[in-house]
Every structure is written in structure tokens, then in C-alpha cells.
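Severity: low
Component: inverse-folding endpoint
Summary: output formatting inconsistent between runs
Steps to reproduce: submit the following C-alpha cells with default settings.
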């Protein structure tokens, strides 16, 4: 893990040169001087258009809140939360993105409220830190071990989690999945049965696109991780909070598997 400083630009270097040196950029940050970091992004003004879908579901005043932005990339969401007064930890496995985020934190003048650390989702299992708000967006489908990642993340949430993932098509939900036995396996062919598509050879040119759950699958996984879904503000977005009536098995009868999988003593 590292919270190292952003690189200091040599005197006289232009913003355009600096952006090129720090790039390529995935997040199109709108810097205070009007410069954009990825103005020709293939998704459009990304992720500003995603932020607009969820911004009203997050309190305007986050003073006193601790937040975690998983897969923070260049820190777009981290900065939006910091602008609302939160203290934010952004984690990502990619040092290039973290360098972009550290540099941009200086531009937005929020270095006193944000930290960026090089971590994998799974490393969170060995941290004692918990958070009022967790953003877990655009990462689950990149994980080779998605339920492990979700179980770890859900245990870190005190108040709210904003979850987003690539999904497989279909909004159907087959409700009565409990109490089934071996002879009922045909029911799993129903389009609304919770499922995840596995991409053995990657997807859309990215070898780390491993999985795409359908909508029913997302809901089932979130519930199984101990979260209740408060709303679905847009396609692929889920606003959740811990469900005290139905905590995850990793907090009740099966913490051993999670501990073993994350290198912690479990016997
Ligand atoms: C598709 S981008 C999403 C960025 C941002 N969360 C968003 O929604 O715009 C995925 C990001 O997650 C990071 N990432 C992928 N796997 C990760 C992992 N196992 N742990 C932490 N970050 C990861 C990538 O480096 C990348 O910055």
C-alpha cells in the first residue's frame, strides 16, 4: 500500500504535456481551469453522466462521513464526495490511475480530505477500517472471485453502498428460489433465475471482464452479502444498506471460509 505524493511537474511544463505524461486517462475529470482529462472518451462525458444518475441518492452534506471509493481510477467520485465534505479513501490496483488521482487532488485542493492507496478489493479483508458510504462501481465484473469481493466489501459498510456492475440482459426476477431440490433444476433455466455469465476469454477486448450477473443475480448476491436494496436509480445501479434482519453468512455461521480465502487464521 502506498499514499505517495503525485509526481511534481518540472517547472514550465504545460498542463497538456502533463496530462499526456500522466495518461492515458479513463476518467474525464473537469479540472478547475476548464481542462478535461479525457474529452474524447468513447463513452462520452464519463463518468459525469453516471454520477448524475446517483448524485441525488447521496446526502448533499457529507461532513463527518467516511467514504471508500473502490476502483477509484482517477478519482472522479472521490472528488465529488470530498466536495460534499466527506473524508474519502480511494483504492485501486493500478498505480497509473492512482498517480492521476493524486495529481488531480492537488488541482481540486482536496488533499486534506482524500487518500489514495494501492490496494486490491481483497486487501480490505485485512483492514479494520469501516466506512459510512462505500462506492463499489465498475469493479465486480473485473474480479475473478466476485462473491468473495462482494462479501469483503459488504462487511465494510456502515450506512450506504452504491453498487454498479456490468450485467447480462434481462430484468426478470424468479422469486421463489428457496426450498427447491435436485429435481427442480429445470427451474434454473427461467430467465429470472439468478445467474452470472462467465467470459472465459474476456469480453469487449478486456481480459479482466470475467463475469456479468443478470439483474436477478445482482439482487440475490447483494442480499446474500447482507445488503438490502433501497432503490435502483438507473440500469445497473443499486443503492443498498446493511440489512440487520438478514446479515451475511460471513457474519453469522460461515466466517471461516472468508477468513481462509483472505489468509486469516480461521480454526
Ligand atoms: C471500469 S473501471 C471503473 C472506475 C470507477 N469505479 C468508475 O465506476 O468509473 C475499473 C477500475 O477498477 C480497478 N480495479 C480492477 N480490479 C480491481 C481490484 N481487484 N481491486 C481494486 N481495483 C480494481 C481498475 O484499475 C479500474 O480503475
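Observed output (run 2 of 3):
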Amino acid at each position: 500500500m502506498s499514499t505517495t505524493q503525485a509526481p511534481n511537474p518540472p517547472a514550465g511544463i504545460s498542463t497538456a504535456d502533463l496530462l499526456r505524461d500522466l495518461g492515458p486517462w479513463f476518467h474525464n475529470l473537469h479540472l478547475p481551469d476548464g481542462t478535461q482529462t479525457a474529452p474524447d472518451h468513447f463513452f462520452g462525458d464519463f463518468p459525469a453522466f453516471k454520477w448524475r444518475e446517483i448524485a441525488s441518492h447521496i446526502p448533499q452534506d457529507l461532513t463527518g462521513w467516511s467514504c471508500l471509493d473502490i476502483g477509484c481510477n482517477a478519482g472522479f467520485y472521490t472528488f465529488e464526495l470530498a466536495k460534499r465534505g466527506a473524508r474519502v479513501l480511494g483504492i485501486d490496483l493500478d498505480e497509473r490511475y492512482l498517480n492521476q488521482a493524486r495529481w488531480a487532488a492537488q488541482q481540486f485542493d482536496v488533499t486534506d480530505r482524500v487518500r489514495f492507496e494501492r490496494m486490491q478489493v481483497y486487501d480490505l479483508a485485512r483492514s479494520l477500517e469501516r466506512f459510512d458510504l462505500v462506492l463499489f462501481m465498475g469493479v465486480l465484473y473485473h474480479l475473478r472471485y466476485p462473491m468473495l469481493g462482494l462479501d469483503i466489501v459488504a462487511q465494510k459498510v456502515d450506512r450506504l453502498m452504491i453498487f454498479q456492475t456490468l450485467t447480462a440482459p434481462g430484468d426478470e426476477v424468479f422469486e421463489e428460489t428457496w426450498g427447491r431440490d435436485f429435481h427442480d433444476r429445470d427451474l434454473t433455466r427461467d430467465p429470472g433465475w439468478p445467474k452470472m455469465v462467465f467470459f472465459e476469454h474476456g469480453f469487449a477486448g478486456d481480459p479482466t471482464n470475467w463475469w456479468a450477473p443478470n439483474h436477478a443475480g445482482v439482487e440475490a448476491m447483494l442480499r446474500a452479502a447482507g445488503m438490502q436494496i433501497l432503490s435502483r436509480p438507473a440500469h445497473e445501479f443499486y443503492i443498498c444498506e446493511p440489512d440487520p434482519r438478514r446479515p451475511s453468512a460471513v457474519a453469522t455461521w460461515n466466517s471461516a471460509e472468508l477468513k481462509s480465502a483472505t489468509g486469516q487464521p480461521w480454526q
